[in-house]
């Protein structure tokens, strides 16, 4: 476990940030009166998420690998970070739908039906289980992409060796 201590720490930081982000979404009305904007605006979290990955991999480079890291090491570390974040994401979704915005799913279904969708498909797409699955898949997939890009930025250059 010591080997992945940095990834666990940054996954916890990101999860805490994600809960704050959801609170900001609620404050801005994206969970109720502006719910139709939620999907588009909630994707903005990718930018701070990339910053968290950068900071985590930078710390891994200097504290664990003593300043020298190759792309594969950085990518693996980012992949592990992605999996841990994805594993913690059900707690974030549960927090949002149980404590922060318990009416969110019902409002999302209502908005979907008003816009012409069928109620049955709305209930399949807008459910706690669906949001948890989507959060896990999103965090793994976007995390892998971000990890690959950040690994390119963070790897030790030939001139640094």
Report on this structure:
The chain is an all-alpha fold. It is built from seven helices and no strands. The chain has helices at 5-27, 38-42, 46-64, 71-100, 104-114, 119-125, 128-154. The longest helix has 30 residues, at 71-100. The chain starts with a helix and ends in a 7-residue tail after the last helix. The mean pLDDT is 93.
Layout of helices and strands:
Layout: H1 5-27, H2 38-42, H3 46-64, H4 71-100, H5 104-114, H6 119-125, H7 128-154
Helix pairs in contact: 1-3, 1-4, 3-4, 3-7, 4-7, 5-6
Protein name: DUF4199 domain-containing protein
InterPro entries: DUF4199
Keywords: Membrane, Transmembrane, Transmembrane helix
H/I helix tally: 7
Count of extended strands: 0
* Beginning-to-end CA distance, first to last residue: 28 Å
Rg, nearest Å: 18 Å
Strand content: under 5%
Portion of residues in helices? Answer: over 70%
Q: How would a textbook summarize the main sheet? A: none
Average pLDDT taken over every residue: 93
Give the uncertain stretches in residue-range form: none
Q: What structural class should be given to the helix and strand makeup?
A: mainly alpha
Q: What string gives the helices and strands in order?
A: HHHHHHH
Q: Which descriptor suits the 3D outline?
A: elongated
Keywords: Membrane, Transmembrane, Transmembrane helix
InterPro entries: DUF4199
Protein name: DUF4199 domain-containing protein
Transmembrane segments: 12-29, 35-55, 75-96, 135-154
Give a brief description.
With 161 residues, the chain is an all-alpha fold. It is 76% helix and 0% strand.
């Amino acid at each position: 476990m010591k080997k992945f201590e940095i990834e666990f720490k940054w996954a916890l930081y990101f999860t805490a940030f994600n809960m704050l982000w959801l609170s900001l979404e609620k404050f801005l009305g994206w969970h109720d009166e502006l719910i139709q904007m939620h999907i588009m605006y909630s994707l903005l979290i990718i930018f701070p998420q990339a910053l968290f990955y950068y900071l985590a991999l930078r710390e891994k480079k200097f504290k664990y690998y003593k300043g020298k890291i190759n792309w594969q090491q950085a990518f693996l570390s980012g992949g592990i970070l992605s999996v841990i974040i994805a594993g913690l994401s059900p707690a974030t979704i549960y927090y949002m739908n149980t404590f922060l915005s318990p009416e969110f799913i019902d409002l999302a279904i209502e908005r979907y039906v008003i816009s012409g969708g069928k109620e049955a498909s709305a209930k399949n797409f807008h459910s706690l289980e669906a949001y948890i699955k989507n959060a896990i898949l999103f965090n793994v997939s976007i995390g892998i992409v971000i990890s690959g890009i950040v690994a390119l930025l963070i790897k030790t250059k030939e001139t640094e060796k």
